[in-house]
Amino acid sequence: MLIPHDTRRALDVVVDLVNTAPESDQGDRLADLEALYGFVRLHHVSDVGTLTEADLRAVRDVRGRFADVFAALDPRTCAELINQLVAAAGTTPRLTDHDGFDWHVHYFAPGASVADHLAADCGMALAFIVVSGEQERLRRCEAPDCRRAFVDLSRNRSRRYCDSRTCGNRLHVAAYRARRKEAAG
User: Fold this and answer.
1) Whole-angstrom Cα distance, residue 7 to residue 145?
2) Which end of the chain has fewer CB atoms < 10 Å from its terminal CB, N or C?
3) Digits of tens for pLDDT over the chain (185 positions)?
4) CA distance 97 to 62
5) For the chain, domain boundaries
6) Cβ atoms 94, 46 nearer than 8 A
7) What does the alpha-carbon distance between residue 72 and residue 83 come to, in Å, rounded to a whole number?
8) What CA–CA distance (Å, rounded) separates 139 from 43?
9) Helix runs in the chain, H state only
């Protein structure tokens, strides 16, 4: 599956945004404006001015709507949720080549709020996944104590954990120990 750099970056942003939710293992990582500024800086979200409490509330709302996309059981539901997000953001596709990146498409309107920016760009990245017939790649970690979101970009769609070095390894070690304990009787 060939994914352009801007789409890949937007997928990373949407996954990280969904994983800031309170149900993650670290509590709400968008608890205040400082955290939102940190998120924007970390992900190099462009064209963002001064953020307000209203922006924080709007981004949390968008985050919840993206979580619904990851929870959707079929492509039609997924598409409807993405269409609602993108339409509400008032997309205005335009080509740009800023900050050392080659030509790519921004879907947010100039001067858009950070929530609309995220809804438009990340929503279109998710739309790319659905249009490609790959909606099942939008997953939650199968570790019972995790449930973090991720996009499975493995060649054979076999990824089960958000991080094989943490969640995957922890479960494999637990299963190994259980087998050894059972064998020891």
Assistant:
1) 29
2) C
3) 678 888 999 999 999 999 999 875 578 999 999 999 999 999 999 888 899 999 999 999 999 999 999 999 999 999 999 999 999 998 888 888 877 778 888 888 888 999 999 999 999 999 999 999 999 999 999 988 888 999 999 888 888 888 866 786 666 666 666 677 777 87
4) 26
5) 5-184
6) no
7) 13
8) 21
9) 5-18, 33-42, 53-71, 75-89, 114-131, 169-184
**Nearest alpha-carbon partner for 14 in 39, 51, 41, 49:** 39
Six token digits for residue 77: 């539901």
98: amino acid identity, one letter: H
Handedness of CA 174, 176, 181, 185 (dihedral sign): positive
Closest CA to 145 of 131, 128, 166: 166
The CATH H-level (homologous superfamily) assignment of domain 5-184 is Jann2411-like domain (1.10.3300.10)
What is the C-alpha separation between 13 and 118, in angstroms, rounded? Answer: 8
DSSP-derived secondary structure letter, 136:
G
